[in-house]
Amino acid sequence: ASHGEGDRSGYLEVVRNCIMLQRCLVQAMDFSDSPLLQLPHVRSVPKGAPSFSEVLKSPEPSLLKRLGNFTEQQVLDIQSFCQHLPMVELSYSVEVNDEAEMAEGDMATLKVTFTRTNLSDDNESAGPVHA
Question: What is the pLDDT of residues 91-103, one digit of tens each?
């Protein structure tokens, strides 16, 4: 039986789950933890806190006050983290070598590409890791 494009959509979910698992392992976070806990100096997420994407787009002190009372240095740490956090675009393809169609039992190759979108060109470095 031939597999259509609809059957390939499950691969994306597998890749997303692998990324989530890596976050859990590397940052000692649970699947249900708020992404805001990745920010330095954030130990809990209060009610009415901004979203992770809001903080990444504009880590201004007025917005960060909704997360907690941070010192000037802590605000700078959070802003530095937001600048260096990888913004990635994920693309993937599933292929069978030398065949146009995929059939049951075929050996498939999954190609995953991550592109950092917050770097201006291929030669730009992200700088030191914030750890």
Answer: 988 888 888 888 8
Task: Count the helix, strand and coil residues of the chain and give each as a percent rounded to the nearest 5.
Answer: 40, 15, 50
- How big is the chain, counted in residues? 131
Number of H helices, E strands in the chain: 4, 2
Q: Quick check: pTM over 0.70?
A: no
Residues facing 114 on adjacent strands: 90
Q: What does each C-alpha distance from 66 to 48, 49, 77, 80 come to in angstroms?
A: 7, 5, 16, 18
Find residue 113's DSSP bridge partners: 91
Enclosing H/E stretch for 29: none
CA distances from 45 to 20, 79, 100 (A): 19, 17, 49
